[in-house]
Amino acid sequence: MKPDFTKTGLVPVIAQDFQTREVLMLAYMNEEAWNLTLEKGYACYFSRSRNKIWMKGESSGHTQRVVEIMIDCDLDTVLLLVEQNGGAACHEGYKSCFFRSIKNGEVEINQKRIKDPEEIYGKK
Question: Could you give phi then psi for residue 25, rounded to 5 degrees?
């Protein structure tokens, strides 16, 4: 069984830490990224902004080893339980891409930055 790529060609993918269950990021897969993920055992996604396949960590070294894959009842969303290598899943240097909270209408940073994006990518 695989996700239904016939609707839009892409399915949303939630990457979650397999030990803590913390949601790390949301990305998208097309069928090619799905097949590469299964083949490699590491999360591969489709970048909508760059219009290409990418393996998480290919430039940062912060890979996601896939521990378990789940597909929802409609076959249109994937949940990856991953081992996040390198600490930061977020390109801004946070463990999770969900490092902002809205409290009383104000944005608060809810995590400590663990990597400097400039050191990882040479830019912010």
Answer: -165, 165
Q: What is the pLDDT of residues 14-70, one digit of tens each?
A: 999 999 999 999 999 999 999 999 999 999 999 999 999 999 998 889 999 999 999
User: Which whole-number Å values give the CA distances from 65 to 38, 41, 50, 84, in the listed order?
Assistant: 11, 6, 23, 7
When divided into structural domains, the chain yields a total of 1
Mean of all residue pLDDT scores within the chain: 94
Contacts of 15 by beta carbon, 8 Å cutoff, 6+ apart: 23, 24, 25, 26, 27, 43, 56, 64, 80, 82, 84, 89
Query: What pTM, to 2 d.p., does this model score?
Result: 0.90
Residue at 70 is within a domain: yes
